[in-house]
Amino acid sequence: MKRHNIYLPMAAMILSAALALPAAAQNQVPFKGTFQGNDTVIPPPTLTTAATGIGTHLGKFSFTQELTLNFANFTDAGSAQWIAANGDIIYTTVVGSAIPGDVVFTITEIHIITGGTGRFAGAQGSFTVHRTHVVAPSDDGTHITFGSFEGTISSPGTAH
After folding, report:
1. What single string gives the DSSP state of each residue in 133-154?
2. What are the beta bridge partners of residue 16?
3. C-alpha closest to that of 23 among 126, 122, 127, 152
4. Cis ω on the peptide bond leading into residue 44 (within 30° of 0)?
5. Which of 29, 41, 99, 160 could form a cystine bridge with 106, CB 3.0-4.6 A?
6. 136-141: long-range contacts at Cβ-Cβ below 8 A with a sequence spacing of 24 or more?
7. What is the pLDDT of residues 111-159, one digit of tens each?
């Protein structure tokens, strides 16, 4: 059997296997940024966050999240929307935990990307948010929050 008779079927088999993998899983790229904003505590134990920042694949962005707080063990869970400069949105589910302090809470949250709109339609990935929540409320009753995030996201535009 000649070499080209072996290589061609092998190349076709490898190409078929590569194409069978989801495009989003093949093209994970770094996803990171920083933000600052405000947390609002709403009874029952709900925390809403509104913030703005700058990040990779987002440019200048805004994000909102709504979390249910568990004060017994300082954990939270909920969902968030990250809105890119052009209006495309990334949707995430969130679970987190806090280390309480007298002046600030140090919060770590894991965001799982569940999809999006525009170039983020079908997006996958996850990232970790590290943020600070100032305990003392501002004059408007909200709490200052700021932080950063880092993880991976499917390459924008490849998940369609």
Report:
1. EESS--TTS-EEEEEEEEEEEE
2. none
3. 122
4. yes
5. 99
6. 136/103, 138/38, 140/38, 141/40
7. 999 999 999 999 999 999 999 999 999 999 999 999 999 999 998 876 5
